[in-house]
Amino acid sequence: MMRKVLLGLLLTWLPLQVFAWNWRTRISLSLNDQPLSAICEKIEKEYGIHFSYSSDVVKMSRRMSIDVDQMPLRRVMELLFSENGIEFRRIGDQLVLTASKATTRTISGYVEDALTGEKLIGATIYSPALRVGTTSNQFGFYSLTTARDTLSLLVTYTGYSPAQIPLKDKENRQLHVKLGPSNTLQEVEVTETLPQLQEQTQMSKVNLSVSQIKNMPRMLGEADVLRTIQAMPGVSGGMEGTSGIHVRGGSPDQNLILLDNTPVYNSTHLFGIFSVFNPDIIKNVDLYKGAFPARYGGRLSSVVDISMKDGDMYKYHGEVSLGLLASKIMVEGPIKKGKTSFILTARRTYADLIMSDFTKRELNLGEDGEFFAYFYDANIKINHIFSPKDRLYISAYGGQDNMSLNRNMTFDSMNGTAKRYHEEMRFRLGWGNQAYALRWNHIFNPRLFSNVTLNYSQFYFITEYHYKHLALDTPAIRESDNMFGRYMSKVQNASAKIDFDYKPNPKHAVKFGGLATWHIFQPGITSFNNVSDEQELTDTAYNNQTSKGVELSLYAEDDWKIRDSVHLNLGVHTSGFLVNNRFYFSVQPRLGFRYILPKRWALKLSYTMMTQYIHLLTNNATFLATDLWVAATDKVPPMFSTQVALGLAKTTNDGKYEFSAEGYYKSMQNVIEYVENLDNFNSATSSWEDQVIQGRGWSYGAELFLQKKQGNFRGWVAYTLAWSQRSFPNVNNGSIFPYKYDRRHELEVVLTQRLGKKWELSCQWQYSTGMPLTLPTGSYEQITDPSPHLPPTTNDPGQVDLVQDRNTLRMQEVHRLDLGATHTKTRKGLTYILNISLYNVYNQQNPFFYYYKRNEGTQKRELTMMSILPILPSVSYALRF
């Protein structure tokens, strides 16, 4: 009897337990970063609340963190499901989950500086509840489709205080976000920011901030964009002291350098020591070493995308800077407050003014002689807002380098005769860039953004010389020699481009567009005339030809979030090039893949094909800017490359550290080089195609990058292990040889330490394997006939070198330590900035080039290394108002 009573009580009690929960049931739960499905299983296990749903309809893989204590069940359900687009209701003993009706809405707009109106590139707009987000594009525009019940968005940007933006309604809307700059480092230590390296499919990309560029140790007082890029893994600087870049085994012409979406063909000043980009007008710099998005094309090795500031919309201010080498000024402000702004920068070197007397004396130019070398450049940009949906940008750049040497003197003969001579020599070397852009932004709807760009750019190079030699006091015939020469080259292009950003939903970010470019090439015009007593006038002018080409391209790419752990970027870039009635066509697929591994490590893979329709004829025997840009022809086809990369990446949960490791392999076809023993002026003929050879190239290696991004102490360590090789018929017997910029090991250490609010210290140490070197393996003497124009004493036997294998030796290894200190003080609305830098602190003699020099004692030739950059202190002073 007792057993029957107990069994009856048990059967009665169980269903009471099942149906015992109600909306006021108190829940205590603490879980971190768990899928919704796991959270529901935990509640079901501990409270007997059963959930019913279809995984095809309700996305339970979204991850959440929850920490509640004795909270009513209904409120817990709202926290878990309301912002995830999930509706819940009780049916019997079940909690049934379904997708909300009209679950999404799109928030779009611009992210800008609250004080100046400057648009912020790459700002993160993020929904913490849904763990979905996006970033603003290069114009500061963003579009995020999220759950209709989303209560707020978190907006963050490095160097600015984060903003929590409440969403009061549930409709699509434009929302312009204004972020305030941080005054202290502590304010920018944002721990809630989306871990970007894990979430982005993009790999082989480096973003540089203006603060990183300006905080680096400076050479001769000038902060430099390209010199900062050299400190990144996979980027080599070429010759010691120059600011050129060679990316993953590529040559200089294989870098697409864009200034406000306009190509710049020569990016250096002062024989390559400085870049043409004034950091005072730069807003953002993106470097792509591979995994190129489909919107980029036309080069094989890298893309450097530089965006200029827009100008302050509300207040006038500027900066004046004085350095050892150059002075510069920047002014910005509103033309019409809140509607139109401008920014203007200009700089010029003045070493020629300071060192004029010294150079005249050292070069023995005579009383009337002169020598000067300087560069200048200027930028201007105007930004106008027509409406909330339309903005117009006009930007322009102009810069030029000039070097001139004039010698004018009378002297006595050195061979013991009584003759006197008068000599006049004038030499001029100059090159420059111009770049202009007109851009129009338009918002069609919250999910579709467009940008139309019209631009023009050109690069030119010119050399002129005039030599006059006159014998004085000659009784009968006055000996004379009068020569004049001129050499120039030029490349121009004008283009029209349209780009669209379309974000249909949080899983897809689509970009598509097209480009048409008109190229004009004048690869080399040379003239020469000679008048002397012994010969009649010789006048030569050739290659006065203009080559034209039209380049067309279309592209489309989709950044597709397949699952939370799987991200795919699919794209294609198609292009064609019409030149001399020949049409080249290329289809270039692009693939990026990202998979989230345990502990939030991201595994990334990319595959890229690139085509380049223009070539740069580079002479290895000169360090001047005498390179010639030419178009692909029937004889010299376009270059092609294929690159595969695999890597790991992670940002720590607190956002302080980033780590990436990448391995890559790149092959190149139709790379060109001058034939052996050809000088630049002979190459400037109309038959330049006959002066080059075509071959193949390979580069492969591994890159490691560790960066600390927050706190008073910041910096990075970058290491590159790389191989770069070339192969040409009839060069090196057709065997593969190391490319001239091949460097096996490169290590960069960059550290900055902030001391209080006024001082910031920086140091950079770099090490790299020496570049390949070709030296003669033997020599023989050759007796030449006496020259009728030279004294008999100069008719010595000539020595001819035998050169066999190319680049079998290496220069001495390169290493250098640079230090910098910046002091910032603000008083009465003015900011004073003092920078003291020390280049090559321990005076390392790094090689610039090698040459043979005859030892006067042994009369034997000895290999001699030339080093041009010893320890160099510098000071610059800036006033910001």
From TrEMBL:
Membrane topology recorded in Swiss-Prot or TrEMBL: Multi-pass membrane protein
GO molecular function list: siderophore uptake transmembrane transporter activity
Domain of life from the UniProt record: Bacteria
Biological process (GO), any one: siderophore transmembrane transport
Record's GO cellular component terms: cell outer membrane
Pfam families cross-referenced by the UniProt entry: CarbopepD_reg_2, FecR_C, Plug, TonB_dep_Rec_b-barrel
Domain Secretin/TonB short N-terminal: 49-100
Keywords: Cell outer membrane, Ion transport, Iron, Iron transport, Membrane, Receptor, Signal, TonB box, Transmembrane, Transmembrane beta strand, Transport
Family under the similarity heading: Belongs to the TonB-dependent receptor family.
Protein name (database record): DUF4974 domain-containing protein
